[in-house]
Amino acid sequence: MRPILMKGHERPLTFLKYNRDGDLLFSCAKDHTPTVWFADNGERLGTYRGHNGAVWCCDVSRDSSRLITGSADQTAMLWDVQTGTQLHTFTFDSPARSVDFSVGDKLAVITTDPFMGLTSAIHVKRISEDPSEQISESVLVLKGPQGRINRAVWGPLNKTIISAGEDAVIRIWDAETGKMLKESDKEIGHKKGITSLQKSVDGSHFITGSLDKSAKLWDIRTLTLIKNYTTERPVNAVTMSPLLNHVVLGGGQDASAVTTTDHRAGKFEAKFYDKILTEEIGGVKGHFGPINALAFNPDGKSFASGGEDGYVRLHHFDQDYFNIKI
């Protein structure tokens, strides 16, 4: 399996997202410029210029026409995917950390960081079909959790919002009233900050990765813990195969702690686990720094990883991968 190395970012990667068709890959990094690539050959298609800070997150609409990005420059921007035009800018009083389109792309949830005395917040915005009618007002603003909310995504049928972050607690909120419906049990939950959260393709469960060196699989409606995956380093990114029962964890100790040793010691590989048996079944090496972002192509035949080293690595699986017998 020869990876395709995509060098388009000057700074560490923060997030990767495929579009629904799996032909485009969007990458965000600390260099202010989200980039779009062809997902089959890694060719760079274009960039989205306008942010003045690290871009933490992005999401793309179901028809691949709109992109939304959240940045440390205290804005979230809506873009035309094809032309790279800025359609609208949502301005906040603190950095925008996470963005997620609802099913149907009529709403977006955006989280903002604690900053200068402000607590973190979850904002729900209505997304207009006609960009000229787009307004900045929030439909709903949720405040509550201490510490940064690293990820917030829509639950089933857009009825709930699921958030997770530095305080290691996963919360489910009512998307209409803003009331908190459930939070994860501290006994079975993560012990350190949650870095990443990703839903399954069918939206029935989701996986979280944490600095406590584990990833956990949860039922999206009941918050029941289904599976636990343990590793020997902090987990920065998690993803699940849409095709096979595989879970991939990425991470590695902090780059500053490994500069004196050789790159194998930093354990910068994407590790594959059997989703059901929770056993490690393999790994993909390559990055020269911690892995910060992982994404599976919707067809399950390739995956991408983004690292602290500024590279995106695109891996198309060999046929052998699909014949793995556990």
From TrEMBL:
Domain of life: Eukaryota
SMART domains tied to this protein: WD40
Predominant cellular place of this UniProt entry's protein: cytoplasm
Residues in WD repeats: 6-47, 48-89, 142-183, 187-228, 284-314
Subcellular localization: Cytoplasm
Record key words, sorted: Cytoplasm, Initiation factor, Protein biosynthesis, Repeat, WD repeat
InterPro entries associated with the record: eIF3i, WD40/YVTN_repeat-like_dom_sf, WD40_PAC1, WD40_repeat_CS, WD40_repeat_dom_sf, WD40_rpt
Keyword Iron: no
Coiled coil: none
The keyword Transferase appears for this protein: no
Family: Belongs to the WD repeat STRAP family.
Subunit field text: Component of the eukaryotic translation initiation factor 3 (eIF-3) complex.
Function per UniProt: Component of the eukaryotic translation initiation factor 3 (eIF-3) complex, which is involved in protein synthesis of a specialized repertoire of mRNAs and, together with other initiation factors, stimulates binding of mRNA and methionyl-tRNAi to the 40S ribosome. The eIF-3 complex specifically targets and initiates translation of a subset of mRNAs involved in cell proliferation.
HAMAP family: eIF3i
Name this polypeptide is given: Eukaryotic translation initiation factor 3 subunit I
Organism: Solanum tuberosum
